[in-house]
Amino acid sequence: MIKQPLLLSKVNVVYAIVVGVMAVLPFVLDSRTMTILLTQFCIFAILAMSYDILLGYTGIISFGHAMFFGIGAYTTAIMLSDYGPSIGIFAVSIVVGIVLSAIISVISGALTLRLKSHFYAMFTLAISGLFLVLAEKWRTVTKGNDGFTFRAPELFRERLYFYFLVLICLVVVFILLKRIVASPFGKVLVAIRENEQRTRSLGYKTLGYKIIASVIAGAVASLAGSLYAISLRFVNTSVMTMDITLDALMMTIIGGVGTLIGPIIGAGVIEFAQHYLSGLAREYPIFERWIIFFGILYILAVIFFPRGIVGTVSLRYHEWKLKKGQKTKASVKLREKEIQR
Amino acid sequence: MEPIIKTSNLSIKFGEHKAVDNINFEMSAKHFKSIIGPNGAGKTTFFNLISGELEPTEGDVFFKGLSLRKKSSVERTRLGIGRSFQITNVFPNLTVLENVRLAVQSKRKVRFHMLNHFLKYKEITNEAIGILEQVLLTDKMHQVANQLSHGEKRKLEIGMLLALDTEILLLDEPTAGMSLEEVPAILDVIRSIKERGDKTILLIEHKMDMIIDLSDSIMVLFNGALLADGTPEEIMNNETVQQAYLGGLAYD
Ligand SMILES: Nc1ncnc2c1ncn2[C@@H]1O[C@H](COP(=O)(O)OP(=O)(O)OP(=O)(O)O)[C@@H](O)[C@H]1O
Ligand SMILES: [Mg+2]
Predict the structure, then answer these.
(1) Signal peptide span per the entry (chain B) (predicted)?
(2) Which of A28, A31, A50, B150 is most buried when burial is the number of CB atoms within 10 A of its CB?
(3) Which stretches within B197-252 are classed as H helix?
(4) How do residues A279-299 score in pLDDT, each as one tens digit?
(5) Which residues have a beta carbon within 5 Å of ligand 2, which is an ion?
(6) What is the count of structural domains for chain A?
(7) Tens-place pLDDT, residues B173-206
(8) Strand runs (DSSP E) across chain A, as ranges?
(9) Ligand 1 centroid, distance to B86 Cα (angstroms)
(10) What is the model's pTM?
């Protein structure tokens, strides 16, 4: 009656096909720009998924997520330029970035996650602002606002190889996070999102769960930052700015909160829209303000697709199934979907 | 015998209003006590003080002699004080089964397991299904809690408490707002817990016939204070109680 999902379920087969397509896409398109764009998409998909662990699963609103992205980016950039552009250093820098992010999330989480959620949101805004200032002022290490370029490991100068690495990271992070959210631990995160007071009353120390969720989210965001730095072979303070957090937030909301596939789709939509809109800007200057279009897109999305793309599509799918007469089972699922915002 | 639960001078003020006023009470293990009192008497607030949802302005609660002053609601649940809520307090967007499973999971101390699929823990699901059978919700198990009728939500609330399997059960008006047909089933559930004989039960209820039938003793709250505490017979014959409460018995 209640079965564990199979490894070879329909959904997993679809995922495998999508990954396969993404792997051959650069060969089909055979364009440097496209490979770079796909790389960016994967990196931001990783970032957006990490954000959704907080927002969609645990119900924590953070305005400071860029901080972890920035920590990863700077750690990798600084270590590669100081210790040389080898794969080994790159790997170590990822680990160092993750550890730093974890430490910072534990400390800030322990200090503030017991606060009411809007205080926490404010606090994250403040502390990430602090890191931004640090990156600006600690010129000996960060070269201030202008940032610095550095040499990426030899292997990754070949854009295609780097794309494969990033794609593998996306797949691994997706599988890992999927495991976590489907675990007993993940179920408690969702319970906290739904009703924290009741979760405590059941005997769960919710603060610990929230801190761990923020450590996981911070660590994954830091990984995304490390990859981002390599993709640009350059880093400056923009990796710490609110724009990064807002990107993650928009991707998550447009794609669909509380799912992992949603943020990935959201990242795809936004990365590609950004690309084409800024392309259009060359012909029609009005598109130079593509950020305004984004604002509008965002507002429309929130009004018309409050569930995000994934939520809306799955709702329509179940409605369609319902029409086809598979009444009982689909109707239960449909109602579930309706309620899950 | 040492009381399993005890309060001393327990009080809480909301502004100038003493919602619970200097209550001293104790209860021995495996006893069934009901709490009655008019609306606003402080019954739910009394529960909130015992379960740690609220902090007393004065006094303390003791569980097996241990002061609970510094214990959060989480720790009190883990010690063995479980409760249900008068105003249904479940996970609205999770299914009925998921709601109960979370309670079973907590009882079984499966807390930070991160890498196994939750359905690998078959015993948790099975136990949750068993609980749903007890509270007659098996056919609703895959429905989202939000969509349940009021009465079904009350059943779910009790199911989650049973799933926690704590030594002490605090039941806050489990049948409040239920339709008349639904009440006997819940009554049966409570009676069968009582008959199993391993739980200490505190029940807040307005339905007098139900209380008299189930309780070993009854305590009466009035304006936050403990007005009387005794066997059902004593309470029914107590004149102050009659004047204060039973006289104006318009509740059901
Ligand atoms: N958190 C709070 N803040 C302020 N006042 C409160 C709070 N909780 C309860 N009260 C007040 O304390 C008094 C006791 O409320 P309580 O809910 O304990 O009554 P009750 O006996 O459970 O009543 P009922 O039978 O209606 O459930 C009421 O006057 C109520 O307004
Ligand atoms: Mg009450």
Answers:
(1) none
(2) A50
(3) 208-214, 232-237, 239-244
(4) 777 777 766 666 667 777 777
(5) B 43-44, 86
(6) 1
(7) 998 888 888 888 888 899 999 999 899 999 999 8
(8) 148-149, 234-235
(9) 11
(10) 0.89
